[in-house]
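#struct-pred

JT: dropping the chains for the assembly here, can someone run the whole complex?
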Amino acid sequence: MRIPRSIRTAGLLLAAVLLGLAAVQGSYALWAATAAATPGTVRAATFTVNLTGTASTTPVPMTVDGQPTTLALTTAQAPLQELIRGGSVYTPLTITNASDAGGTFDVAVTASAPTVSNADGGNLAAYLSISAARAASPASCAVALYQPLATGVTTPAIAKGGTAVLCFKVTLDVAAPLSVEGNSVAISIPLHARQQCGVPNGCA
Amino acid sequence: MKNTTMLKGAAAIAVGGALLLGGGGTLAWWNAADAATPGTIISGNLNVEAGAGVWTDRAGNTININTYRVVPGDLLTYSQDLDVTLSGSKMAANLVAERTGAADGFDPASVTVSAPRLTVDGQPIANPLTSSQHVTASMTFEFKSTTAARTDVGKSMDLGSVAFTLQQIQQPGLQ
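RK: done, full complex below.
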């Protein structure tokens, strides 16, 4: 079918107008203005809690690469092998909240039921009781008020940059037989750090 | 020869008449003149300008997002002032905000980022706008307090760019 010349001409003109409008990015669409904002990048804080024992003054983070670490402690006032019936030894642990959180960020650390393993085939573990206490400083472990660890002992809230002290005490039963003399045990106390509701209304 | 004389006479009469008409004045036809002053056409204006954005924490304290580190429970708000200029007898425009280009390193279950919200005096804007206004754009970032274990420790989220577009429209009924 033959298309009249006038229609073809009109079609070409329309196509040219459309192409022209498209090429100038819609200037036919009335006025427009834009402004932009760049809110920036939000970054999460680290959750770093450091432990310092009496054996070393070097802080050890509770986790490294997301895995729990182990801190070896020694007793403060006497070697463990000199523990006598009814006697106790203790050791302090200093806990530091080293998070770089921007706002309020309190944590609390809980020491829970220990695992006591006999070494060298002995039976000393059955005659030991392990307790813990909050303390104002490592030097005050001798006079701290100890509680059994079976139900857990928790530090007060530790503010960002702040510290708390837990003391651990090991007591030998007065009825311990002579057969445990010279025995040794390995005591492992798990520690859990938890964020407190320090962020205003953060736990609502 | 006689015809030639007649032609010359007719031509002289025609020239004389033309001179009378062209010279204006003595030909007794009515004339009148007047003038109009259409006046000056002045165009309106349409513009949107963004001020400096501000981040605040849940308590409303201003923070520096470049140094601030969020923890579970944090609720941060980004506010941006927008000066919208609209003038014109039939001016109307829609203001919209769109966030693009975000890069999220957080677990999606741990955070909530709201869409940009446009308000005037605390109330959502009602498009189309027909006059100049001081608009506040805001969006929130919440690090949920239900985040467990050590999820998202040290992660970051680039919130990208928020584009505010003020687009003129034709007011309904006003063409």
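JT: nice. The mean pLDDT of chain B is 87. Chain B is about 15% helix and 40% strand.
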